[in-house]
Amino acid sequence: MNDSFLRACRREPADRIPVWFMRQAGRCLPEYRAVRAEHEMFDVMHSAELTALVTQQPVKRFGVDAAVIFSDIVAPLQAAGVDVKLVAEVGPVFANPIRTSADVAALPRLADPSSSMAGLLGGIAQVAEADEVPVIGFCGGPFTLASYLVEGGPSRDYAKTKALMHGSPDVWDALMDVLADITTTSLLAQIDAGASAVQIFDSWVGALDPDTYRRYALPATASVLQAVASRGVPRIVFGVSTGELLTLFAEAGADVVGVDWRVPLDLARARLGPNVAVQGNLDPAICLAGWPAVEAGARRVLDAAGSAPGHVFNLGWGVLPSTDPEVLTQLVDWVHRQPPPTDAP
Amino acid sequence: MNDSFLRACRREPADRIPVWFMRQAGRCLPEYRAVRAEHEMFDVMHSAELTALVTQQPVKRFGVDAAVIFSDIVAPLQAAGVDVKLVAEVGPVFANPIRTSADVAALPRLADPSSSMAGLLGGIAQVAEADEVPVIGFCGGPFTLASYLVEGGPSRDYAKTKALMHGSPDVWDALMDVLADITTTSLLAQIDAGASAVQIFDSWVGALDPDTYRRYALPATASVLQAVASRGVPRIVFGVSTGELLTLFAEAGADVVGVDWRVPLDLARARLGPNVAVQGNLDPAICLAGWPAVEAGARRVLDAAGSAPGHVFNLGWGVLPSTDPEVLTQLVDWVHRQPPPTDAP
After folding, report:
1. How many contacts does A have with B, using Cβ atoms within 8 A?
2. Which residues of B touch A283 (CB under 8 A)?
């Protein structure tokens, strides 16, 4: 198996700089759209065969060094029995927003993932058995999931979420406990099914200042990371607009910190120190600007990443749907042709 | 006139910590909603009397130390003749998005602000004549205005904007030249009408990484700041998610750097050094969480701001519409009762 991704996660030298893309499965791929023309999102997620198929499409097309499983960050909530719909152009919409301690107490747990997440876990097993590249399992971060549950869906300002957090910390803490539990169950099941690494997408946690993160989001995140530590797989944490939270991700237990495009990797590494790997961070919008701009941007990323091992090349956020797949193929090939870092970390 | 705001902008000791709130005029105030029940947004903006009335409402109610003029960041574009509508729950929507050099060449300039911006300028003059607190004039930042024009309205990912910027830098640079020109004309007219300070709301420029900001946004911003420098009024620059851009705002010429709630002010000051004042940065969502949370948050802001002069207390972004005005009144009073910084800067 191509182990360049896992080696970089462990800050070990590798024979090339590994690449994968957040949201590489789906979105911009015509072969994915062909699948989706016949199957709803949740139908794909509930089928091991379709999950494996869609997960492997970008590996085949782009030549990336890891296969992130095709799923959604709210999948464990749906599997637990929470009433959620994925609405096109909107995102996840929850029928019953969580605002009180009674709401939290009534939340279901993820009791039997082998049954309720059979599609996801079976998909992981199939891709892992192919033994070409490592499979990355994932889940939403506790704050991000909580924000969806409290707001009832996506939000611009997280006003209700933060009002609950700061105004009713007991309710908030109870909600985070439930979400840490669901998330842990999901990640352990994914690892046991064959995931060689896991990523917590705490996509929207960058809405918090560091003090607030430390008090209201770090404990649940650390609990999840700690609970999966014994499995020995690299644990990645990522969210957008998290420049001031990067060190807290490491403090929570991340082995690899995902960095959005706003923070140059030399700055990120200076903040994080040598004991954490970094992942990122080309602005996905640059991929719409033609190859010369893409190459120049990728060059800046590698220059900033420096010469120590422990860099996984990625975009700074998910692939944009209007991206030309050919550009991503060219980008992977270009990164693979660059000399890998060889310095001692 | 109460000069505590201007003294803090100039990093001089003052007898109290000055406070104002972004979006203090409008939004959460019932007396503003009463005005808007009878007048459309642009009707208020086109009337000097209504502009002055709405601008002074929060000064009277909250006791803030500065009066930010009631307007919209796209007002200069509308005054120049660009076809823009302010759509409730959406934002500014432009009939003719700008994508080509021909589009840019066809953009109008702000030829006669004394006529086309008579409401805004008359409103500034009326509030300035009252001589109670300084008037803050403002405009949108060049990047932010460009993003609205290119996308045709608000955007999540600025994909078209960034594709134009990175893919057609000549078109982008020409667009930024036009916007710097319009913005400069607007700010000079506002200062000449009586504004004692100006703020560039480059609200969405935090979507750029530092290298990209330096190449594609800083030059136009610096040009605007330089063009108004001779008037001698403090120049504030602000945008959300701009932790990695703060030093570039100062490099562009800002006298005061607005900091969103993500970056603690001690970190912001460490990055900026002693020759720039800072403004901010309580998370506006905390104002929805009850007074104890507000006081604790405000205390953290002041502790981080430290003991050197040069801090203007503000929220880290605009007042949320669901904020209870009484909380803001209480917050201003609380800040005013704290000992002001007295150390040499």
Report:
1. 102
2. 162, 209, 212
Q: What is the mean pLDDT of residues A145-154?
A: 97
Mean pLDDT over residues A205-224, rounded? 98
- Residue A108's pLDDT band, with cuts at 50, 70 and 90, is very high
Nearest Cα neighbor of B66 from B20, B30, B128 is B20
Q: Is the pLDDT of residue A345 over 90?
A: no
Catalytic residue check, B36: yes
Among A residues 96-115, those touching chain B with beta carbons less than 8 Å apart: none
Nearest CA to B190 among B83, B273, B89, B70?
B70
CA atoms within 13 A on the CB side of B322: 11
The DSSP line for B57-108 is HHHHHH--S-EEPP--TTHHHHHHT--EEEETTTEEEESS---SHHHHHTPP
Residues of chain B whose pLDDT is less than 50?
345
| Residues above pLDDT 90, as percent of chain A | 94
The residue-averaged pLDDT of A161-173 equals 97
How far away is chain B from the Cα of A149, in angstroms, using its nearest Cα?
Answer: 17
Q: How many CB atoms lie within 10 A of CB A238?
A: 28
ipTM over 0.85: yes
Amino acid code (one letter) for A41:
M
Asked if A170 reaches chain B (Cβ–Cβ under 8 Å), the answer is no
Contact B157 A212 (CB under 8 A): no
Element (DSSP H or E) covering residue B9: helix B4-9
CB contact under 8 A, A283 and B209: yes
A67 touching B (Cβ < 8 Å): no
Identity of the residue in A157, A267, A320 whose CB atom sits nearest the CB atom of B285:
A157
Determine the residue type at B41: M
- Taking the Cβ of residue B155 and every Cβ of chain A, the question of whether any pair is shorter than 8 Å is answered with no
Q: Is residue B215 annotated as a catalytic residue, yes or no?
A: no
Separation of alpha carbons A259 and B147, rounded Å = 24
**Catalytic annotation, pick one of B148, B158, B213, B216:** B148
Give residues with Cβ within 8 angstroms of B327, minimum separation 6.
B287, B291, B294
Q: Which of B3, B10, B16, B36 is catalytic?
A: B36
Report whether B218 contacts B251 (CB < 8 A): yes
Q: Which residue in chain B is spatially nearest to A300 when comparing CA positions? A: B211
Q: Which of residues 225-284 of B touch A (CB under 8 A)?
A: 241, 243-244, 261-264, 267, 283-284
Supply the pLDDT for residue A41.
87
Among chain A residues, the shortest Cα distance to B294 is held by A166
Active site residue B99: no
Q: Mutate which of B158, B168, B209 to disrupt the A interface (most A C-beta within 10 Å)?
A: B209
Instruction: Identify how many contiguous H helices and E strands chain A contains and give both numbers.
Output: 17, 9
Q: What is the full DSSP assignment across B257-293? A: EE--TTS-HHHHHHHH-TTSEEEEEE-GGGGGS-HHH
Determine the 3-state secondary structure of B109 from DSSP.
coil
Which run of H or E residues covers position B238? strand B235-238
Q: Does the beta-carbon distance from B167 to A288 stay under 8 Å?
A: yes
Q: Is A90 on the interface with B (CB under 8 A)?
A: no
Task: Please report the domains of chain A, with CATH numbers, ordered by start residue.
Answer: 4-336 (3.20.20.210)
CB atoms within 10 A of CB A314: 27
Cα–Cα nearest to A263, from A247, A288, A280: A280
Whole-number Cα distances in Å, A261 to A84, A273, A337, B105, B172: 30, 19, 22, 32, 21
What are A313-332's pLDDT values in tens digits?
Answer: 999 999 999 999 999 999 99
Residue B345, pLDDT score? 47
By C-alpha distance, which of B115, B26, B110, B31 is closest to B72? B26
* pLDDT of the residue at B344: 55
Cα of first residue to Cα of last residue in chain A, in angstroms, is: 24
